[in-house]
């Protein structure tokens, strides 16, 4: 059965863009401890890069997938060096909010990560996901090798041939260049800030829709 992942547009002022109290927001309930892997540990895994809207949402989705060991929120797709959140979120660079996914290819393939990417956002929405507007929220599937590019291109061709969407796919397929990690307070943002208004209204519903459609992909603690 074909499943179309569309993010509803909210007629309210929720946005992933920075606000004056962003850094001070904390969850009311205790935050479960997360096992942190060192850079040495992470070097044994493969990496993949995607952009599909607010990275708070995208990070949480990929973190829930079996075989994914770590996800880092950051910026990619533009020429500017060392961009900041304020610069990217307000469209002052050509970067998009993106994620770096560390994964174990013996558990999950790049092809399946591409399916997660397309199945967790609306790839027909130009420069927008949900309430977040601007090129910094555009859809990009990055590739590092010719094989990865073919996997992405072939999957797009499949989606089009099966008529999964009633509008053209506008996802950019882009050769990966550089990734800049976002500021520390953005990492694991959804997990640490479940009571944030944007997280409650946009990010968590998006995550739940993904879980409903990708039950077989989820880690045990993500069900």
TrEMBL record:
* Classification via SUPFAM superfamilies: Peptide methionine sulfoxide reductase
Q: Tell whether Oxidoreductase is among the UniProt keywords.
A: yes
Catalysed reaction(s) here are: L-methionyl-[protein] + [thioredoxin]-disulfide + H2O = L-methionyl-(S)-S-oxide-[protein] + [thioredoxin]-dithiol; [thioredoxin]-disulfide + L-methionine + H2O = L-methionine (S)-S-oxide + [thioredoxin]-dithiol
Instruction: List the active site.
Output: 54
Keyword annotations of the record: Oxidoreductase
Record-linked InterPro entries? Met_Sox_Rdtase_MsrA_dom, Met_Sox_Rdtase_MsrA_sf
Q: Name one GO molecular function term.
A: peptide-methionine (S)-S-oxide reductase activity
Domain Peptide methionine sulphoxide reductase MsrA as annotated: residue spans: 47-198
- Superkingdom of the source species: Bacteria
Q: What family is this?
A: Belongs to the MsrA Met sulfoxide reductase family.
Role? Has an important function as a repair enzyme for proteins that have been inactivated by oxidation. Catalyzes the reversible oxidation-reduction of methionine sulfoxide in proteins to methionine.
Name of the protein this chain belongs to: Peptide methionine sulfoxide reductase MsrA
Q: Which organism is it from?
A: Croceitalea marina
């Amino acid at each position: 059965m074909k499943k179309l992942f569309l993010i509803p547009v909210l007629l309210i002022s929720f946005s992933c863009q920075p606000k004056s109290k962003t850094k001070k927001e904390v969850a009311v309930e205790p935050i479960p401890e997360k096992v942190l892997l060192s850079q040495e540990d992470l070097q044994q895994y493969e990496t993949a890069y995607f952009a599909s809207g607010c990275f708070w949402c995208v990070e949480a989705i990929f973190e829930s997938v079996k075989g994914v060991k770590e996800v880092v929120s950051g910026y990619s797709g533009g020429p500017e060096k060392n961009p900041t959140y304020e610069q990217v979120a307000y469209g002052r660079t050509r970067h998009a909010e993106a994620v770096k996914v560390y994964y174990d290819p013996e558990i999950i393939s790049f092809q399946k990560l591409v399916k997660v990417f397309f199945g967790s956002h609306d790839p027909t929405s130009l420069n927008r996901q949900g309430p977040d507007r601007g090129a910094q929220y555009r859809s990009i599937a990055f590739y590092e090798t010719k094989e990865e590019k073919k996997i992405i291109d072939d999957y797009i061709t499949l989606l089009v041939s099966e008529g999964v969407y009633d509008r053209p796919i506008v996802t950019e397929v882009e050769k990966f260049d550089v990734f800049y990690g976002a500021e520390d307070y953005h990492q694991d943002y959804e997990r640490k800030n479940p009571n944030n208004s944007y997280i409650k209204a946009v990010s968590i519903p998006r995550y739940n829709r993904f879980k409903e459609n990708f039950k077989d992909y989820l880690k045990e603690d993500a069900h």
